[in-house]
Amino acid sequence: MSFDNYTIVISGLGGQGLIKLLQILGNALILNGYEVITSETHGLSQRGGNVTCFVRFGRKLNAPIPILGSADMIIALEESSILNALKYAKPNKSTKIIVSSYEKRILGVDYPALEYILEILLKITDFIYFIPLTEIAVKHTENIKTMNSVLLGYILKFLLINKEDIEKALSDNFSGKILDLNLKAFNEGLKL
Predict the structure, then answer these.
(1) Dihedral of alpha carbons 86, 163, 173, 55, sign
(2) What backbone torsions phi and psi does residue 59 show, to the nearest 5 degrees?
(3) Which of 76, 111, 153, 155 sits 20 to 30 Å CA-CA off 165?
(4) Is the pLDDT of residue 43 over 70?
(5) What Å distances lie between residue 151 and 46, 47, 71, 100, 137, CA to CA?
(6) Which candidate, 98, 89, 104, 114, places its Cα nearest to that of 151?
(7) Which domains are present in the chain?
(8) Closest CA to 53 of 31, 75, 33
């Protein structure tokens, strides 16, 4: 696996802390000596609409927003939001796709069935991981807002980042009890 130019696409809903997640992950990557470019789409982010963020890192970077079909990893913090980011998956079925089992259903709107989502994902990649981020966060910290720290712990197995650098990035962004909860969530993610 080459980290000369690695792309992560994160899709979620406004209010899921995607910008803070970008900051923490970006800071940890910088601490590991990578060049890092982050960018995001805002759109309806303040109204719970879909938001897509990009993290590009490595030794040789080009443009901040990846071209379609170039993502090494796609993360969806809400189950159906994965459908909005699949255009970034590589055509060779090598993109790692991580999907939170969290669902945000809207009254009167049909929500895609898990079977439908899985059928589409199986056509796109051989690497699909469904993770109950919110359930783990609530079970271990009693705070759903720590789900992104669970995610950071989980994705560490796919990236060449030191655990201590994620912890440092967390401590640069949180303090006190909130930091303690996020560190606990991060360590739960490491166990997955």
Answers:
(1) negative
(2) -100, -25
(3) 76
(4) no
(5) 22, 23, 18, 9, 10
(6) 98
(7) 5-190 (3.40.920.10)
(8) 75
Residue 157 has pLDDT above 60, yes or no: yes
Decide: 94 and 125 in contact? Cβ < 8 Å: yes
Report the predicted TM-score, pTM, of the whole model to 2 decimal places. Answer: 0.93
pLDDT (tens digit per residue) in 112-128: 999 999 999 999 999 99
The residue to which tokens 């589409």 are assigned: 120
Which two tokens mark 164? 């201590």
Q: How many residues make up the chain in this entry?
A: 192
Residues 73/95, Cβ–Cβ less than 8 Å:
yes
The CA distance from 107 to 27, in Å, is 38
For residues 23 and 124, give the distance between their C-alpha atoms in angstroms, rounded to a whole number: 28
Q: For strand 50-58 and strand 35-40, is the pairing parallel, antiparallel, or unpaired?
A: antiparallel
Question: Tell me, what's the pLDDT at 65?
Answer: 79
